[in-house]
Amino acid sequence: MPLRPVEFHILVALAAEERHGYAIIQEAARLTGGELRLEPGTLYRALHRMLKDGWVVESGRRPAADLDDERRRYYRLTPLGRRIASAEAERLSRLVAAARAGRLLTRA
Amino acid sequence: MRLAQWLLRAYPRAFRDAVGDDFIDTSLDRLRERRDRGWPALAIWIVALADTLRHAPAERARAWLEWNAARHERSRHRALKSGERTIMDKLLQDVRYALRLWRRRPAFACIAILTLALGVGANTAMFSIVNAVLLRPLPYANADRLVSVWSRTTQYPRGLLSYTEYAEVRKQTGTLDTLGLYLAQSVNLTGVSEPQRLVGIFATGSFFDALGLKAERGRLYTEAESAPGSVAPVVVITHQLWRQRFNEDPSAIGQALTLNGNTLTIVGVLQPPFDPAEVPGAGYFIDGDLFLPAALWPAPRGLVRAGPVMLGIGRVKTGVTQAAAGADLDLVGRRLLAADPKTQQGRSLILESAHDTVVGASTPALLLLFASVGVVLLIACVNVSHLLLARAMDRQKEIALRAALGASRGAVTRQLAVEAALVAATSAVSGFLLGRWALSGLAFLRPPSVPIPAQVPLDWTVFLFTGAVAIGVAVLCGLAPALKTSRPDLSRVLQAGARRASGSGRRTRDVLIVAEIAMSVALVAVSALLIQSLLAVQNAPIGFDASNVFTLQFRLPQTKYTTPEDIARFFKAAIEHVRAVPGVQSAALVRAVPFSGNGGTTGYAVEGRPAPDTASLPQARLHFVTPDYFKTLRIPLMKGRDFTDRDDLTTPLVGVINETFARRAWPDEDAIGRRFRSPDAPAPITVIGVVGDTKHYTATEPAVPQLYVAHYQVPLIFSSLVARTAVPPMTITNDVRKAIWAVDKDQPVWSIYSLETAVSRTQGQSRFLALLLGIFAGVALLLAGVGIYGMTSYGVAQRTHEIGIRLALGASSERVLREVVGHGVRLTLVAVAIGLAAAVAMGRLAGAVLFQVTPGDPRALAAAALILGIVSLLASYLPARRAAHVDPVIALNEE
Q1: Cα(B624)–Cα(B620) distance, integer angstroms
Q2: Cα dihedral B720, B726, B731, B733 in deg (nearest 10)
Q3: A51–B19 C-beta distance less than 8 A
Q4: Domain A5-101, CATH number (from 2.40.160.20, 3.90.1720.10, 1.10.10.10, 3.20.20.70)
Q5: Does B443 touch chain A if contact means CB atoms closer than 8 Å?
Q6: CB-CB: which of B18, B26, B59 is closest to A40?
Q7: What helix, strand, coil percent values describe chain B, rounded to 5?
């Protein structure tokens, strides 16, 4: 079951550490070199779905030092979410290997 | 912030509950980031809106599908158990068939549903507002019997009542159950750490009676306790004051408040008869902080001798008509006149329904809006009916085939009906949701002077209305073609040429086109008129410079400042202190700041001419000002001089008049040095200067005579400060407050705002109206443009076959083109003519709201006619040109 790209990006953004909504947007942008700019609508629809399916949970609220004093919601991966992200990463890397074998990728 | 909240409401509730607040936080972060990077506000708006439009409907659809799938499982379970095909199954099959067709031609479904949804949604929102404001009864007991009682003079068709009039009416009337007297005025609250100003409503005990009000705690005061001679030192507080000041502590009852220097005991808390958020204008009559006995009204010689100072609210006896009550009241008024001709000269008593009092002013504007929305809906319906007609004709072959394969006529009709119903239902639901969403958006945009409540409730009336509209539309649009095409002659249909436009089909289409163009022209023209009017309002000169002017109001407690000398001394000291505040360029006092809603008038009689009787003296607007007032507001001094500190209580009375006054009173002479008398002045007033005309209440009022007298010669306790500042006005607020408190530390000040704000606030209603109409006109233009183009070009394309024949038979392509386009031109001309006539009629309705623009203004009409006329002509010309250049052989084969 291939993940939708948006979901995968969010999972990857949460893989290293738990983040709040805006930080997820920033991290996703950073990971894709500025190409993926998530809007709140896109982000929260995906988050809503992943919360319901148990891939992501809320992990408390605290102020974000870089923004302001408002307490924000932080999200983190569940073990299930982490497994799904790894599985998808595996699948993608297999595809990349196949592409490399077929001389489609010229860069390392 | 509110934008984000509004966008969030488009998502379903489960979504909002789960991630709603975080959605808002993150949206705000985004907004801030973009603003810091220099994005224009409009771009930020558009991106956020686009994001919402992309996701919110999909999310709602998903939520609905999930819910539906679960339900489906249950019903399928049940069906399997019963094992037979019910009517429900057949209908479901029709629905599935319709959905399949839609998926193949999504454009049709989308356009039809979106068009109808727009029309229905706009109607829903507008009807909710009209319902809440116009159709709802006032939220008081026996609201249909509530009446306002006014006095009437030649000067004021609706004037205040005196206590004597009130007492006499109560004694003599046989048609009123009860009559109450009331008026709101600000009162000073002292004896607390920071003196404050509250809104007090001076009212008789009968006031509570008339409105059917009750006490939530404690009690309300009685008629005796509020009457002069037997007044008790009591006060009733409102629920919101109880919450704000006493935290709903029951021990508030019995505590004392010092208001206007009087110590009053709280005897009760008023129970609000409705939820303030749902009722416009906080219920109009009880919009205040507390209720004081009427006899405590601050007048130097007491309430009875104060003359007409209050408003009357009464209740008519059951079974008595308003006309009868009015006649009875008139009789009482005449008896009063006979008994005391001097005081009652020129006065009579009238009543009007309380509902009209509250709502009256906004009726024409609201009705106009309602009419425009109705037109938008009609245009939407016309569009959709064309779409359905076109599709029905497309599907004739398919229908014929089904009939040939054995489907009964009933089954075919049923399928078409289901499809139309599906369009109607989807449009109704999406229109309803769209309407709710638009309504919350409207609530943010409305100005305070328009009586739309904070939350317009969507009640069953609205829902039924919307549903009825949608069903009506669906029946008209969907079923008519269904009935026509479900009886096809198989052989005729299957032959080529079936798509040739039949005679009656073409006539229907022509009528629809004309109707659509006409309605769009009318709507766009009227909107243009109103927008023109708005621009005139914005640019109307007010006669003074409102930028960088700081104002505040205060009222000196009578007990502390008893002599005019005391008052004058306070004023002089206060102005000196304020002038010393850094950033203040000049300062002065004036009794009624322009555009504050306050003001007064007085009569005048030119000396040396025969004086008319008091009741019919010409009136001038009266202002009390200190020296430097004209300089502060930059009102030009045309002749003579300004007041100086030497014009005080010891020198003769002087006055400065405006140009209109000078022109009317002394048309051929120099006004300087002339004298006139006023019933309110003890001595004649000499004119020492003439200033330019200024506006006082609204920017669009006509020019009236205005009189300025020296504040120091008439020291009054209520006044306002105006100060021209070198810095943004609101930044010096604290310094000015401290300057005044340096003179008297207990003096509360309030209504602190910049004059510019006050001036632009009065334009709020016109701007709001123009905005709404602009939106509707834009939507109508879009729908009409698309519809007209589609319909006309489709009609022309229908005639491709016929064009091909004529070309093949040797007609020149120009001639064919000319004839086809000529038909289009004829239709357009007829439609535009009808539309313009309707526009003029609608413009007359808007006349109440227009300023400096006549209903028949040619520019607006021309603009509307031109735009839509061009669209229509293009729609005839382009496809015709294409058809005329096509190879006749292909055209002949075209089906």
Answers
A1: 13
A2: -20
A3: yes
A4: 1.10.10.10
A5: no
A6: B26
A7: 55, 15, 25
d(Cα A37, Cα A27) in Å, to the nearest integer? 10
Q: Domain coordinates of chain B in residue numbers?
A: 1-84, 93-128+363-535+766-893, 154-346, 561-745
CB of A37 within 8 Å of a chain B CB? The answer is no
Residues B318-350 pLDDT 10s: 888 888 999 999 999 999 889 888 888 888 898
Q: Does the beta carbon of B22 lie under 8 angstroms from any beta carbon of chain A? A: yes
Q: Mutation test of the interface with chain A: which of B26, B30, B45, choosing the one with the most A Cβ atoms within 10 A?
A: B26
Distance from CA of A41 to the nearest CA of B (A): 6
Q: Which residues contact B465 (CB under 8 A, 6 or more apart)?
A: B123, B124, B127
Both structure tokens of B880: 């015709």
> Smallest Cα–Cα separation from B735: which of B285, B727, B334?
B727
User: How do strand B706-710 and strand B619-625 relate by DSSP bridges?
Assistant: parallel
Q: What is the mean pLDDT of each run of 10 residues along chain B (895 residues)?
A: 78 84 85 83 83 83 81 73 66 80 74 79 74 70 87 82 90 90 84 73 92 89 90 90 83 88 90 66 72 87 83 90 90 90 85 78 65 73 72 68 71 75 80 78 62 59 71 66 52 46 60 77 74 68 85 78 82 89 90 77 81 71 89 91 85 90 88 86 89 83 86 79 86 85 80 78 64 72 74 68 74 76 82 84 67 65 78 75 67 55
Q: How far is B37 from chain A (nearest CA, A)?
A: 15
CB pairs < 8 Å spanning A and B:
56
User: What's the predicted TM-score (pTM) here?
Assistant: 0.53
Give Rg (Cα) of chain B.
35
- Cα separation, B180 vs B163, in Å, equals 10
**Roughly what angle, to the nearest 10 degrees, separates helices A21-31 and B13-36?**
60
What is the nearest CA distance from A16 to chain B, expressed in angstroms? 20
Indicate the residue type of B715.
P
